[in-house]
UniProtKB/TrEMBL annotation:
Family: Belongs to the fasciclin-like AGP family.
Domain FAS1: start-end pairs: 41-137
Lineage top rank: taxon: Eukaryota
Origin species: Sphenostylis stenocarpa
Protein's UniProt name: FAS1 domain-containing protein
Start-end of Polar residues biased regions: 181-190
Length: 228
């Protein structure tokens, strides 16, 4: 098992420990996508919020890309971005606008980060709990996405900002999704998949398929040397 796959296994365990079972299930239901396998920060609504959401068939990847940032960022890094900063999501042409009013009131678009740093075991995946589902209408900048490039040193506490030059994502290895043995076992999604949310006593049990800105900070997140 390579290091990236180990990080995904560790992250899903941490998500489950924090009771984000439905988000883990969506990760396992999504088609293989290297953008969701490592070098990523997940923004996770809880089970109750996801139970009230209807996903169209085949839209799981779109949802996860919209709820992720293409670099592993601890909350102490996010806190350094001032209000009106825009952060790229893993979904092309979709940005998150920061409203930074301190640790207890840090907002990305329409949601607040309420449970920071839930995934810390690995080096290439971070995750934070949020108090809602990110709106479908993203904050867009131009007709392109801002790609991420690996950091020069995986031990750097922060990723530096730089203008959107002609940078590309680095090649990534192909992890073995079959090794996620500690996540819930899920069947292949069909046209309709009722009752796919794990039973929990404190939340509903169903998930259906069916301004200009004052300034915009484009930044690239450098993540090189994730492996030793």
């Amino acid at each position: 098992m390579d290091a990236r796959n180990q990080d995904l296994v560790a992250a899903t365990r941490e998500m489950q420990k924090a009771n984000y079972f439905t988000f883990v299930m969506l990760i396992n239901m999504s088609p293989f996508d290297t953008r969701l396998e490592g070098n990523v920060t997940f923004l996770m609504p809880n089970d109750r919020m996801l139970a009230n959401m209807v996903l169209q068939e085949g839209s799981v990847s779109h949802f996860l890309l919209r709820h992720s940032i293409p670099s592993p960022l601890l909350f102490e890094v996010l806190e350094q971005f001032p209000t009106e900063t825009t952060i790229p999501t893993s979904l092309p042409n979709c940005m998150l606008r920061v409203s930074n009013n301190g640790r207890r009131n840090y907002v990305l678009n329409n949601v607040k980060v309420i449970s920071p740093d839930l995934c810390v075991a690995g080096t290439s995946i971070r995750c934070h709990g949020i108090d809602g589902v990110l709106s479908e209408v993203c904050t867009s900048v131009g007709n392109y996405s801002v790609p991420a490039v690996p950091c020069l040193n995986s031990t750097e506490p922060l990723c530096k900002a730089s203008p959107p030059n002609s940078l590309t994502f680095p090649p990534t290895s192909t992890p073995d999704r079959d090794n996620l043995t500690h996540s819930p076992t899920l069947s292949t999604p069909r046209a309709t998949v009722p009752n796919v949310v794990p039973h929990r006593s404190d939340s509903p049990h169903w998930l259906s398929y069916g301004r200009p800105l004052n300034f915009v900070i484009f930044f690239m997140l450098y993540v090189i040397g994730m492996y030793h």
